[in-house]
Amino acid sequence: MSAILETRGLSAAYGSTRVLQGLDIAVEQGGIVTLLGANGAGKTTTLRALCNMMVRASGEIRFNDRRIDGSATEDIVRMGIAHVPDGRGTFVSLSVEENLRLGAYTRRDAGVAQDYERVYGYFPRLKERRHQQAGTLSGGEQQMLAISRALMLRPKLLLLDEPSFGLAPLVVQEIFRILRTINKQDGVSMLLVEQNASIALELADHAYLLETGRIILHGLSSTIASDESVRRAYLGY
Amino acid sequence: MPACFAMPGTELLHQVLSGIANGGIYASVALALVMIYQATHHVNFAQGEMAMFSTYIALLLINLGFPYWVAFFLTLVFAFVFGFGVERLIVRWFNAAPVLSVVAVFIGLLLIINGAAGAEFDYTIKPFPSPFPSNAWYGSPFMSSHEVGMISVTLIVLAAVFVFFRFTPLGLAMRAAAQNPVSSRLVGVRVGWMLALGWGLAGLIGAVAGMMAAHVVYLEPNMMSGILLYGFAAALIGGIDNPWGAALGGPIVGILENLAGACIGTELKLTVALVTIIGVLTVKPSGLFGRTLVTRV
Amino acid sequence: MATLDTSRPAAAPLFAGLSFRTWGLLALALLFAAAAVLPFSLSNFHLAQVTLVIIYSIALLGLNILTGFNGQISLGHGAFFAIGGYTTAILLTKVTGVPYWATVPLAGLICLGVGFLIGWPALRLEGLYLALATFALAVATPQILKYKAWDDWTGGVQGINLDKPGAPFGLPLNRDQWLFYFCFAWAVVAFVIGWNLLRGRTGRAMVAVRDHPIAAATMGINTARYKTLTFGVSAMLTGVAGSLGALWTEFVSPDSFDVFLSIRFLIGIVIGGVGSIPGVIFGAFFIVIVPNYASDLSNWVQTLALPGFLSRILVLLASPQVLFGMALIICVGLLPGGVGGIIRRLLRIIERDAATPTRPPS
């Protein structure tokens, strides 16, 4: 099984401040990988570097064996990578349905209409609120909207930045259950950045642990989750 | 007390209706200003000159023999390309520049366009035709047919703009790009081109205002400076980041202009605009419908 | 053999053996010497142009203090220039017993007051909005000046005619020569005021208010007071310039104070260098020169006998408005510091070279 996403020596800087120091990450086709680490470790920066937004990135990034480092964000999106940013990035003044429509902005195929139904199927609460202004939704609903908007792209790879942030545990469980379904049913590969290590390790196959811009540990999530010393030292549980 | 308070009802009605008609011009200019402001937080000081230059092109086409409405639509195309071009070639490089630099660039554009119009078309005042014949059925003692025509054209433009932004994918993408450029990139919207499109549309709307106004104030390189001022006032009254506000602010300013003219005399019309602008900015800067501006520490 | 001069403290860099301060004083001395001699070596026309440059320098100094050092963008300084000009014109023609030289400080004081008054509502307007409001002021100014209610004072559309003053004490100078010295003297006063204002505590406070207004306020700087004070002083200087300007043109009329005058002031400080005091002289020179030679440029283009289309475009480009507009955009894009910025960079390079000690030959 080849990798859908592979980086070699990925580095990134904000202005003159180096934040990432040469990362080698791989996500397999249909797999879920999680990026763990404390605040400031560089997790969000990694996702931004992959999409070439807001940071100056260098190093190799391969998507389906094709180099995408240096490509514009808008073009990376068109190749099938959807990014759910931290803070959700919903268009707060637009309606739920308009947000979804934007998710499908780059698509020309006929399957868009049924994708609305599919997405509403995953998140029925969004369907109830389809004409409501996105800014008036609760935190959990906005996260659902953000993920749904990403799904409207019919992405091959989904990048998620802290989807559990600020959400009640039950809501988080629901969202992660749906993420697993999306991965199994639609074959969407995922790269998940999370602070909540336990729930991330439950979902992901592989995990990378980031500290001050470097990968200090990686392996099967089952292995890492069962290693008590690692959990206590790095993951806080 | 000024005689205006003793105005007969018919006179008052005429002033109000005429104010609404002029308000159509101001609303168009205001809408153009708001569109650019919403997307870039810049005020296009050169909007008036761009409209004026487009109007000269319209006159050129009419003098070449094109029927009015053909010339009108060709001018809209020109104005769109003009605005689009100005953004892509000049303005885009200054998007992140400090305020003074941006203001200087817009003033520079104002000068170039004004100077080019003067040099190419000279400074003599030229009459501009109206497509609405003065003895048309829709004329009346209260509103000339041109005034009725102006209101109609403005309404059509506003409706078209509304439909475009509300119901087309491109309009949605432009709204998104104006509100949240980062998230827009993440759905594949090419934000830079959306900005250019916004400038093109603003230029187009400004040209409509110019062509409507030229029949009333006559065409000369400085014809739009006063109208631009009224456009600013209308945009501010409505809320400089709210297109609906612009549509409403136009008639409000138009009526205010006429009533003030009746009371204080028509020689201080620009002062009225000035006082309105300063008044809104000091008392309620967000206007009637805009979002309140907050300074971040 | 070159040795390190250890008798002088290391902090005073030398250029060709003299300290910067000495060079500065030499330059000033040269300037005064030139000013003394110029009226006798130039024709009346060219002398008048130099006098106009001096007058505009004072106006630009006023604008630069407000916009360059204090960050308040004004597109309406033509209004203060107008107030100054009309003050002089009215006092000299409608009021008896006021000598011409007294109208200048009077104009300054009136503008100080007006500027202070305008500065107060201006406090509530940030950058772009202040630019908008002052732009509206500039556009409305000619109409305000033409208003019938004060026709008797302002002379309405026709304006007021006045005469250049003659030299006092029977000095053997013609009117243009005397006006040159008169304006030069006022320029010295203006620049001394400006220099002292900007070098001292007030100046630092003004710059702090420009760059970090909220931080400045938390440090106890009364932002409101400094901003209105700056507005007042800025208006005062431009008003003095306007007063001198009226003596120069020998008339004032509403249409000579249109929005393009205010825009030319903006051009002057941008080209000269926002926040640069010596730069205002270059800026003033630029806005005087361009309109003068634009027509020569356009004539020259026509002599080139280029194909019709190309020739028309070049003639278009040679019109003063277009030249000004292009200069503004090019300056902001490529040389944001203007001429003053270039000078500052050169001085810094010289300073760095002067501070490096010379090595003794091995």
Structure in a nutshell:
With 297 residues, chain B is an all-alpha fold. Chain B has helices spanning 9-40, 47-63, 68-89, 99-121, 145-167, 169-179, 181-186, 191-217, 224-238, 243-264, 269-283.
Strand content of chain C: under 5%
- The CA-CA distance between the termini of chain B, in Å, is 48 Å
CATH architecture classification name of chain B: Orthogonal Bundle
Q: In what order do the strands lie side by side in the largest sheet of chain C?
A: 1-2
Quaternary state reads: heterotrimer
Mean pLDDT of chain B: 90
Gyration radius of chain C, rounded: 23 Å
CATH class of chain C: Mainly Alpha
Shape of chain C: globular
Question: H/E series of chain B, N to C?
Answer: HHHHHHHHHHH
User: Could you give the order of the helices and strands of chain C?
Assistant: EEHHHHHHEHHHHEHHHHH
Q: Which residue ranges of chain B are poorly predicted, with pLDDT under 50 across at least 5 consecutive positions?
A: none
Tell me the CATH topology of chain C. Answer: ABC transporter involved in vitamin B12 uptake, BtuC
Largest interface (CB within 8 Å) is between: B-C, 47 and 48 residues
Distance between the termini of chain C: 10 Å
Can you give a write-up of this model?
The complex is a heterotrimer of chains A (237), B (297) and C (362). Chain A is an alpha/beta fold and 237 residues long. Chain A has two domains: 1-80 and 156-169 and 188-237, 3-Layer(aba) Sandwich (Rossmann fold); 88-154, no CATH class. Helices cover 38% and strands 28% of the residues of chain A. In chain A, strands 7-8-9-4-10-11 form a six-stranded mixed β-sheet, with helices on both faces. In chain A, strands 1, 2, 3, 5 and 6 form a five-stranded antiparallel β-sheet that branches. In chain A, helix 3 (96-103) runs parallel beside helix 6. In chain A, 46% of the residues are buried. Chain B has one domain: ABC transporter involved in vitamin B12 uptake, BtuC, CATH 1.10.3470. Chain B is built from eleven helices and no strands. Chain B has helices at 9-40, 47-63, 68-89, 99-121, 145-167, 169-179, 181-186, 191-217, 224-238, 243-264, 269-283. The radius of gyration of chain B is 19 Å and the shape is globular. Chain C is mostly helical and 362 residues long. Chain C is built from 15 helices and four strands. Chain C has helices at residues 20-41, 44-69, 78-93, 100-122, 127-146, 151-154, 175-199, 201-211, 213-218, 223-249, 259-272, 279-303, 308-317, 320-334, 338-355; strands at 14-15, 18-19, 160-161, 251-252. In chain C, the strands form two sheets. A two-stranded antiparallel sheet of chain C has the order 1-2. A two-stranded antiparallel sheet of chain C has the order 3-4. In chain C, a hairpin with a 2-residue loop joins strand 1 and strand 2. In chain C, helix 8 packs across helix 10, helix 12 (279-303) packs antiparallel against helix 13 (308-317) and helix 12 crosses helix 14. The longest helix of chain C has 27 residues, at 223-249. Chain C is globular.
